[in-house]
Structure formats: structure tokens, C-alpha cells
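Page 37, top half.
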Amino acid sequence: MLSIAHQQLSRIMRPDDANIVGNVHGGTILKMIEEAGGIISTRHCNTQSGDRCVAALARVERTDFLHPMLIGEVAHVSAELTYTSRHSVEVQVNVMAENILTGSKKVTNKATLWYVPFSLQNVDKIIEVPQIEYASPEQEEEGKKRYEAQKMERLETKERNGETIIPVISPDRQTKEEYTVGCSQSSLIHLVGPSDCTLHGFVHGGVTMKLMDEVAGIVAARHCKTNIVTASVDAINFHRKIKKGCVVTVSGRMTFTSNKSMEIEVFVDADPLVETAKGKYRAVSAFFTYISLDKDGKPLPVPTLKLETQEEKKRFEEGKVRYLQTKAKRQAEQERQQ
């Protein structure tokens, strides 16, 4: 029998959760997804005797934003444990938007998250995870395949961690040609406070994802100069923990544009203010996809990205490959459902 552990969170969407046209920020939804996943995985990992622990977010698989969520709707976020390895937990989360005036409901997001439990007594000690029971050997095998696949992708992503995004200050931006990478490139600086952190004193994954979505949204808006919304997020990899008191720099740059979408690469770098000997380090990285909308919420063509360097051309081609792969997977999924 598969574990019956479930967690549900519900909250009405307020004006400060949304952009100027009433669409709820993707970062707000990602933060709620992480909160539900963090609760259920931490609860599960503390069902055994021994060290008490808190589950830390290690990775979020690709997340598609199927429908927009609006101000006044109630977000219902439900999480379920679906696989456990020796030191990690897979949680699958569904998000549903409810119109409380009409009673209508729609699924807006589906996400898969991976958590790793750390001891409260020793933040560097990873706790062994209690194993869940499966309905069949096949179900366990499918979970193992997902675990091995994400593990391999995390290792591949680390190869990009040496790359940096040099911030563009406002006076310099005026000299950049329209629709170039430099024209829309953006950064945000945030001092990590107690309200951002877990019991360990490390930043909640949901807080980080919200900051990343904000920067990606600024990049997209600067490029299109229209209303923009998050369409999807490729796998978000949390490479290293961010401690309370760090200054984080969240940087985003446009990497690829198709006719109706744009891909933005986002890095999060942490700089300890107290333990300065540790130096600045890359903590998180991900790709966000945005679409441009008109005043009626209909998709608009995205201005083509102007490429100026060989590196930009290389990143554009890599983004094109990811775009075509995602498109092929989506078409295959639609064919299976027919």
C-alpha cells in the first residue's frame, strides 16, 4: 500500500500576490508549492526515532503553469509522498484554483520536488529517510528511475556553475541596443533575514524561487515591454544552502526566444557577510520560460533576441534544443491522451 501521507494548504489570492493586471506571480505559487512539500517531507522524516530533522529542498523538476490564477481565487495546494531513496524524498504537488463565487475549479500547476533531511543538531548531517510502501514493485521501480534521472541531471547542471552574470547598472542600460541580452539583463540583491529561514537558519527554497521568478519577470518585461506571465520553470537545482545573514544576488539574462515564448537563465549567488573567508558561491540555478500577453490576456509575438557575441549565440542554440525537446514531449503527451 502506497503511503497515505498527504498535505493540503489553501489560501485566497490577494492583490499583493499578483501583477498589475491581476495574474498571480509564478513565484507566489512556487513558494506555496515548496511550503506544502516541506511540511509533508519533514513530517515523514520525523516518523522514526533518532535525530529530529528538517527536510531541505534539493531540486524542483520542470513545472508548467497550465492556467493563470487570479486575485480573489483560492489556491488549493495538495502534496503527496511518491518515492523515497536512502537520503531523499520525492513529493508530487498539485495546485488547483477555485473561484469561490461560481464554485468552478481548475488545475493550474503540477510539480515534483526532491527533499533531503538534515539533522537539527548537526546541519551537515543528512538523516536516513524512512521508506514508504508501494502498491506494486513496478511503482517502486518507476520511482527509482525518476530518482536516478534527476541525480544525473543535477551533476550535469553543476558544470554551468562557473558562469557569471555581470550586473548592468542603469546608466549603462541606456547605451544597450533594444532586444539585446544586455538591454534586459537584470539583478536583485536581498539580505537574508530570520523570516526567510527554516529552523536551521537557512533560506526556505520557496523564498529563493520567488526571488528568482521576480528577476526573470523583470528580464521578460524589459524585453517585451508588455504584460508577461510565467509559462514554465525548468528544473531548479539547489546546489548549496544559503545561511541567514548572507547577501544574495539573483541575476537573470535572456537566452532564447521563440515566436511566443522566451527563456531566461537565473543564477543565485550567496555572499556571507560574517564568514567572509568562505567567499561568494553559486547556490541555485534554473531556466524560466515566459510568454507575452496583450490587454485581453491573449499571447503576443515575442521580439527576436538580438545576439552580439559567440557566447550568446551558443546559449541561444542550447535554449533552442531545450525548447524543441519540451515541444516534442508535450506533443507526445497530447497524443497519448487522445
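Page 37, bottom half:
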Amino acid sequence: MVVQNYNVDRPAYTLSAFEEKHPKMVKEPLTRLQRLQKSGKRAGTYASKKFTRKKVLQSAMGLFPVTRWLPNYKIRDYLFSDIVTGLTVAVMMVPQSMGYAQIANLPLIHGLYTSFFSLIVYFLMGTSKHISVAPAAIISWMTGTAVFTNGKRMLLSDPTLAIMNINNTLNSTDMPMPSISGELLIEDIPMDVRLTVAMTLAFLAGLIELSMGVMQLGFVTLYLSDTLTDGFVTGAALYIMTSQFKFIFGLKVPTFEGPFKLLRTWYAILSNLGHSQWHEIVIAVGSILILLLFKVVINKKLKLRIPIPIDFILVIFVTTLSYFLKFHENWQIDIVQAIPTGIPKPQLPEVHLLKDLIVDGIIIAITSFAFTISVANHLAKKHDYKVEANQELIALGVDSVVCSFFRGFAPAASMSRSLLQEGLGGKTQVVSALPL
């Protein structure tokens, strides 16, 4: 066994001798400019390593999925089907969007604004090949409820708004019927107030969805059971149907709040049937029967590859009748009148209203995403591809924010349009771009 010996030879220092041999290095303090230059150099070094060209390109492709699938688009296999499907869905979307704007208590043109910008954004950022994102019934109803509730609060807190609305009414040739029960009507709330609430609500819902997408919270829909979703849809359908009966009978029925508001609304409608306008009943019931005949009987029995667009045809037919028979002049039937042309100027929402709309914004954001992702997943499983939940959140968020800048309201996937788009053989998101 070999034993190794180590000999350490070093001088012993006193503190004063050590400090004399190894004096302290005193650094001169850096100026503010030097500190900024040093920090910038460190940030530049970090960015050059973290944000390489490849990583930036991957991030952009993740944020805009169109950059991934459009270069691989098979024109011969997909283009004809996408064109036919896109035009058919567009024909259906026009009257639908106008109707959903009415449910949202807004002028009909704002449904078209929402559709236009929703389609652009989803084409660029969506991951589902088959869903149609534009105004949807449930989100429109929730927006309309929030518009009335918050518009009423603003009207009561600022009486000058009511005076402005009265002046606008007196200057108008269309004198609205007074409320039968004396309650506040949605027509009593100035249109500018309604638009402000709807736009701010869409902006807030979009910010919430964007935040959820950035934080990767797409998994929240796993906790929404089918029973909960089905029950909510059924309840919302009852409210939407009830909200349209006043238009069928030509009644001015107030919007109730609080418990039993559905029953109170039905009581107000039934107890005032004597004030119904028979002209509006004939038009409404006739339109419903024609829609049922074509949608339930003719289109299903004939099994046409492209169903007859009875929605669009009916709108054109009734509009023509209204023009020649002068519905408004002869029977005081409300008509759309002039529709503005072109795209509205961008307008920022009212930020000071965000705190009052936070609850409605959260509910609409979660509901919009839940229904959109459920429809998207259903169609994705059927066609064997995957939908990115977090990217869908970001797409919906950007969609709502953009719509809020252009006088629109919060969009979502529509079940009827999405099923039509899939059933007609639409292959990709190009279908969303064609109606533009």
C-alpha cells in the first residue's frame, strides 16, 4: 500500500498584510446611460437566444393557423365544395344575423357587422374546419338581456338620457306604441345607450377569453356536463321563443326582471291579446308555416344536396310585398327602413362601464366558448381531426374585441349553420371567407 504525502507551503498573512498584497478593487459607479446600455445588452443577448427566427415563425403559425393549412390547400379536391357551401351558408346567414341582432335589442344592421368581422377573424385564427362563428341565438339573447338591464340602470341614473330619447322620438316620423302595462320598454332606452352596452360587453368578453387562452385555460369545458349544457340550452330556447311572441302579435310588452319573469311575460302577452295587430299575425304565422314546410318536409324528403334557401327567399318575398303594398304606411307595421352601407368607423368602447358589466362579461365569455368548443369537437371527431381549445379561446377573444370596435356584439358558433356547413360538404375554413 503506497501512502501519498502532500506538502502545502504558503505564507501566513495577517489581515493588514493580506489587504496590502491584495488591495480591494473599487468599481466606479455606472452612469444611468451605462446602466441602460448594460441592461439593453443583456436583453439583446437573451432575445437572440430565446426569439430565434424559427421560434418566432412557429409562434406566428400557432397564433394564425391559416399559415399552416392554407399552403397545403388542395384546390381540386376542396375548392368547389367550399364555394358551394360558403355561398349557401352566406344566404342563410344574412336573415339569421339580422334576426339575432333583434334578439340582442339592437338595430338589424349590427348583426351583419358582427357576421362580417367574425368571419374574417375566424378564417385567420380558427382551428375548426366546419363551424360557423357569427351571431348566435343564445349569446344574442344574453347580450339583449344585459343591454336592457344595464341600459335601464343608466337611464334611471341619468335622466337626461330619457329626455334625449323623447326628443329623438318626437323628431321621428315613427311614433312607437306606448307600453300597455306602463312598464319600461326596451324602446325607451336610447339606441346609443344600447349600442354602448353591447359593444363594451363584447370588448370585455373578448378580453376575458383572450386572458383564458393565454393562461391555457381551455380545459375548463371538461367540467361542464352535458346535462348542464342541455338544460341551459333548453331554458335559453324558451326565453328566446317568448321574446319573439310580442313581435308576432304586434304588442309592446315590457321586459321583466327578477323571479318568474318568463311567466310574467307570458301573462302580459296573454292578457293583452286584444291589442294584437292582425296584419303582423298574418305575416308572422304565414312565414313560420312556409319555413316549417320547406325545412321539415320539402328539404328533407327531396334530400337535395343543396337545400332550398327558404330563409333568404322568404326575406326577399316579404320585403317585396312590403314595398308594393306599403305595410308601414297602410298598417303601421314596423319595417327595417334604410340600412347603412359600408363599414362603420372604428369606435372604442366605454371603459368606465367595464366594472358594471364584469359579471355579464364572464358569463358570456364562458358560455360562448363552451358552445363553440362543443360544436367544434363534435364535428372534429366526426371527421378525425383535432381542435385546439386554447387557440379557439384566443380566436373568440380577438373576434369579440374586433367586433366591439366596429359596432358589433359578441359572436359564437351557431349549431344550425355549422351543421349545414358540414352537411353540405365544406372542407376547410375557406368557407368562412367566401361570404365576405
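Margin note: The two ends are 91 Å apart (CA to CA).
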